[in-house]
Amino acid sequence: MSLAKCYFDIFYIHVKCNYYNSGISNDFKIVPSCELSNIFNRYSLSFIKMSNLYRLVCVRNDISSIKKDYKSIFKDVIMKFDIFVANKNIYNFCDLNVKETYLFKNEKKSCELKQSSINLRANEVYEDKLFGKILINFSELTPDTVTEFFINIPVIKSFWVVNTGNTKYNINEYDFKINGKIVKFEQTGNANSYISKTTIELRESGFYTFNLIGKDKNTNKCIKIIPPLIYDNIIESKYVSNCAINN
Predict the structure, then answer these.
(1) Which of 7, 93, 96, 208 is the most buried (most CB within 10 A)?
(2) Nearest one of 242, 182, 241, 176 to 211, comparing CA atoms
(3) CA atoms of 128 and 110, how far apart (whole Å)
């Protein structure tokens, strides 16, 4: 009679990104490097993609043997994974350098895979572009704890521009409200053009409600603004996003 297989989770990896309302990005593919194929086959390891994360799983008949090998064999192992861009549009809303390839490493007592200052090499933009490398040092892990590693992808903060000349009302004074709170805008120097005084984090559709409150002598007019999903220009090293009027 054969023994039932035991599945032992060693660690998880997922990618966080505030751009998405879920806080999780599926814009990347993570795959074991070619040099891991031998150790994966020899020690019955599998790297499995699930909905929002990747799992490194060890499959055995006896869970005690997994822990024994973990302490003796795996403790000196540094596992290398490649990260590929699955959605090249991320460079329109994430604060990333398209010419850099990033290196991420685990650190003791931290679940965040911290970005190293080392850039591996420059790449052109294309589907499945090599985004970076992950190095997992097993000496920083414990066999009785499943570590949930994550990579945090920063989101672009941009200055938002609104052209009030595109509204159907002839009003000269406005309040700008984002998610119910007044946000300060100032004139750009161009007629009817306003820009936010501070940067605002880009988010996916549905996160922001942006209203322009036109102050008329008789009543206030509420004009809906479509929040930007990406940046449109880089002016003097600053990201700028254009907003559309929803008349």
Answers:
(1) 93
(2) 176
(3) 28
**Pick from 165, 167, 174: nearest CA to 212:** 174
Is 46:95 a contact under the CB 8 Å cutoff? no
- How do 174-178 and 181-182 pair as beta strands? antiparallel
Exposure class string for 5-16: b at 16+ Cβ within 10 A, else e: eeebebbbbbbe
Residue keyed to tokens 């990005």:
25
Q: Read off the tokens for 80.
A: 């290398």
- Cα–Cα distance between 50 and 45 in angstroms, integer? 16
Question: What CA–CA distance (Å, rounded) separates 213 from 185?
Answer: 12
- Determine the Cα angle at 73 with ends 144 and 15, to 5°: 55
The type of residue at 93 is F
Prediction pTM value:
0.85
Q: Which two tokens stand for residue 172?
A: 């000269």
